[in-house]
Write a structure and sequence with these properties.
heterodimer, A: 492 residues, B: 366 residues, DNA Polymerase III, Chain A, domain 2, nine-stranded antiparallel sheet, elongated
Chain lengths: 492, 366
């Protein structure tokens, strides 16, 4: 027969029988102290003739005295009950809870009770105090700790992956950043993010930092901008604490440098950065850099640095598309607790091209709601949008109608004569409609006058063209891009 | 068995044992004192199986022997004896105490029934009496008296060769005293009662440090305090992760005079017996207002002259008992309260006492 460990219930049953037997033989004081307080907690049948038992005592006093005085009695009694030769070992500790639940009925004087009785009787039920060590408190404390750490490092706590809107223009960057933050140092090192202003480079970088801190609040992390890095070196040299600076940077497990292009052209800084970079990557620690252009376009960057940046993963973040802008607007308004409908968000996205301007508009919106107590509706949105672009209108008023037509013609690579003419070839029609739309929108020319520019067309034809473009702009992304491009070149 | 001893020595040894003697012993024999006389020493022993103490007595020994005699009556008898020498003698199961013009006979109990003491061996660690006093002063008030959670009835001691830290909590407040520990520190869960005994003995023996010997296998700690030996069990179990709940940041910081705060809470406490000892605090840049909920008895409103509030306005409610216990320890100092939210733990500390942190969980007032 193979050895078999008895289940806690079986052990408890054997022990109950054993207790019943011993109780008759011993005085109750002796029984309570030496038998009941030192229960059988483990019983294993080695084979048909042998068994192994464990008696657990609350203290060493109990244990040694039970062993000295009751060993033979227990061996005999357990032997009879199990029909085997019992070997008893003595153990000190608290017995598992299951045993006590079985025993509770019999031993009211038992000092242990199941852990459920935690409320303190002397308090009345209405005011409550939560336990210091309740899961809730522990979790809160952990979150606080992490936020504090983020703040100390200089990360914005609201820049996380959850608040980052992802679309085709930045999904690659988002995926790489997520991978890096989940396994810092091992996946892509260094990670080099570049793109124009307001595309979310800094947001991604902060999100990487915050995510690493979430997994490991103790991580040694340094976040700074290229300019701060430069300033710190200058200061370190000034105060003769260069070694201190080196220790700090080279011991980092994660180094995040924003706008690295600022160190270009500063030789001492580049050299220091080069050594820091080598020291950190050698330890398999993560480096994340952002820049407004790819390494090979950063002028005056040392070749050895450029080649190192290029050895890692370089990702270009594109300008946000219309959908992404809408998503960003929705996310940001949600974060500011402003209820914004998707239609209004689209309206904002149409007029705003960079993510940073979105932030400005959302802030304006919030101040209007909070300070002036206004409702979020189309009127308010239009007002904010129009307030956002007085500079644009000013510029366009100086533009002449012929300039507009010329720009549109150049954009579509058609002749001005053709646009103004009668031909109804498809690409000409589109160009003509856009030109009409722009003349109406940007220069606010009367419809009749616009008609005159295009081979004396009727004002209703112009009205049709403007309305058609307005309609199509709502969903045609290609058209949006073209119109905004033409607008930009007009302003230039 | 026969020896003679001065009344003063015998009584002082017995008084040390007196607190160990259980009033309601599980076994009758545990209410007794064990007297063990060898050729050159007399050792008195008492135990309730959780805590045990051995105290030697200076005596002139005539014949060695062992006996067990009921403790309370022995102590009372010796205390009533006139000053001078007492002759202690055993004949046929009777203990005879003889002094000038006095003779007392006491029935002895069975020596065989008296429990053996465990043998604790291991490396000795040292704990200074001043540290022990700090533990008594700052940690013991926070330790839980609720036996349903054995771990919280113990003091967590972290000992290393260079540093020491003690922690006590009842789940609603937390005291931490000492310096942050290195990782190699030994962590011991010593019952609060044992710590009180150490303090009392260390003071009466006037020693500057005690040494602790720990047996992990036996879950026992043996303390050598002067000539006396204290046996105690260690509490088994996982101590809660206390470091995690010490607030790391504060949005509101109140600085005030600890004595003034204590006085105000004392006054407020008078009116809180019907409302679970709740005292409410409203902190705002203009000052601190202390109130009690209005009950049939009445209510209290007070302010703090010395308080300076930095940060967001906030109101919290505390159990006055938790504050009364501990504010005494900050007496004469400038106290700092660090808060974040109404229901998050609050940190009390003083710059004059940097090694002590006191964390209290506020009440949710419905």
């Amino acid at each position: 027969m193979e050895s078999r460990t008895l289940s806690p219930e079986e052990v408890a049953r054997v022990w109950q029988q054993c207790c019943a037997q011993l109780k008759t033989e011993l005085s109750s004081a002796v029984f309570n102290t030496w038998i009941l307080a030192n229960p059988l907690t483990h019983l294993e049948y080695l084979d048909d003739t042998q068994a192994q038992a464990t008696i657990t005592s609350p203290t060493a006093f109990h244990s040694i005295n039970v062993k000295k005085n009751f060993h033979s009695k227990l061996t005999l009694s357990l032997g009879e009950l199990t029909q085997r030769q019992v070997e008893i070992s003595y153990f000190i500790g608290s017995a598992p809870i299951t045993i006590f639940r079985e025993k509770k009925v019999q031993q009211p004087n038992q000092t242990f009770m199941p852990n459920t009785l935690l409320t303190r009787p002397e308090f009345s039920p209405s005011p409550r105090v939560e336990e210091l060590f309740s899961p809730n408190t522990l979790e809160n404390a952990a979150v606080d700790r992490r936020l504090l750490r983020s703040k100390q490092i200089g990360l914005r706590t609201d820049f996380t992956f959850t608040t980052f809107a992802v679309s085709t223009s930045n999904e690659m960057a988002h995926a790489a950043a997520t991978a890096v933050s989940n396994q810092p140092g091992s996946s892509y090192n260094p990670l080099f993010l570049y793109g124009g202003v307001g595309v979310g480079k800094t947001h991604l970088m902060h999100a990487i930092g915050n995510n690493i801190l979430q997994a490991n609040p103790q991580a040694q992390m340094i976040y700074c901008t290229g300019e701060e890095f430069t300033n710190e070196i200058v200061q370190a040299i000034q105060t003769k604490r260069a070694s201190h600076f080196k220790d700090r940077y080279r011991s980092a497990q994660v180094l995040l440098i924003d706008d690295i292009q600022f160190i270009a052209g500063k030789n001492a800084v580049q050299e220091e950065f080069f050594h820091t970079f080598n020291a950190i990557t050698k330890k398999n620690c993560q480096v994340v850099l952002t820049s407004d252009r790819p390494p090979h376009e950063i002028r005056l960057l040392e070749d050895r640095l450029r080649s190192r940046f290029e050895a890692g993963l370089m990702i270009d973040i594109q300008e946000p598309s219309f959908e992404l802008r809408t998503a960003i607007i929705l996310l940001k308004s949600q974060a500011q607790n402003i209820a914004l409908s998707i239609d209004l968000a689209k309206r904002i996205a149409e007029t705003v091209d960079s993510a940073r301007k979105i932030e400005g508009i959302i802030t304006l919106l919030r101040s209007a709601v909070e300070l002036q107590g206004r409702e979020v509706n189309t009127e308010l949105i239009e007002q904010i949008i129009s307030a956002q672009k007085p500079a644009e209108q000013h510029l366009s008023q100086r533009t002449s109608p012929s300039e507009v037509i010329k720009t549109v013609a150049t954009h579509f690579s058609v002749k001005q004569i053709a646009i103004k003419g009668k031909s109804r070839v498809k690409n000409l029609v589109t160009a003509r409609h856009i030109a009409m739309y722009l003349l109406k929108q940007e220069l606010s020319l009367p419809l009749v006058e616009i008609g005159r520019w295009f081979a004396n067309r009727d004002h209703t034809s112009v009205l049709h063209a403007v309305k058609k473009i307005e309609q199509e702009l709502l969903y045609d992304q290609q058209l949006q891009q073209e119109v905004s491009f033409i607008r930009k070149s007009l302003q230039a | 068995m026969r020896f003679s001893v001065s009344k003063k020595d015998f009584l002082s040894a017995l008084q040390k044992l007196q607190r160990i003697l259980p009033t309601k012993p599980q076994l009758p024999v545990l209410a007794a004192v064990h007297i063990f006389v060898t050729e050159n020493s007399v050792l008195l022993t008492a135990t309730d199986l959780y805590l045990g103490m051995q105290v030697p007595v200076q005596a002139k020994i005539t014949t060695p022997g062992v006996l067990v005699v009921p403790g309370k009556i022995l102590v009372s008898a010796i205390a009533s004896f006139p000053e001078g020498e007492i002759v202690v003698e055993e004949t046929d199961g009777t203990l005879i105490l003889t002094s000038t013009a006095t003779k007392v006979s006491l029935q002895t109990a069975s020596v065989a029934e008296y429990p053996d003491f465990p043998e604790v061996t291991g490396d000795a660690m040292h704990l200074s009496t001043s540290d022990l006093l700090s533990v008594e002063q700052y940690i013991l008030p926070s330790v839980s008296k609720d036996i349903t959670r054995p771990v919280l009835t113990a003091v967590l001691l972290e000992l290393s060769t260079t540093a020491f830290r003690a922690v006590g909590t009842d789940g609603f407040r937390l005291s931490v005293f000492g310096t942050t520990q290195e990782t190699d520190a030994r962590r011991l869960l010593i019952p609060a009662r044992t710590i009180s005994e150490y303090v009392r003995l260390a003071q009466s023996e006037s020693v500057s440090q005690i040494s602790l010997i720990v047996s992990t296998e036996l879950q026992q700690v043996l303390a050598q305090v002067g000539e006396c030996v204290v046996f105690s069990r260690l509490v088994a179990g996982e101590y809660p992760p206390f470091e995690q709940i010490i607030p790391s940041d504060a949005t509101t910081i109140i600085t005030c005079d600890a004595d003034e705060l204590l006085e105000q809470i004392r006054r407020a406490h008078v009116l809180t017996s019907a409302s679970s000892h709740i005292v409410q605090f409203a902190f705002s840049p203009t000052g601190v207002e202390i109130t009690t909920p209005t009950t049939t008895d009445g209510s209290f409103i007070g302010t703090l002259e010395s308080a300076k509030v930095d940060g967001e306005p906030l109101s919290v409610a505390f159990n006055a008992l938790y504050l009364l216990d501990m504010l005494k320890q900050f007496s004469g100092q400038e106290l700092q309260l660090q808060l974040t939210e109404t229901l998050k733990p609050v940190l009390f500390r003083s710059n004059d006492l940097p090694s002590f942190l006191y964390v209290v969980m506020p009440f949710r007032v419905v």
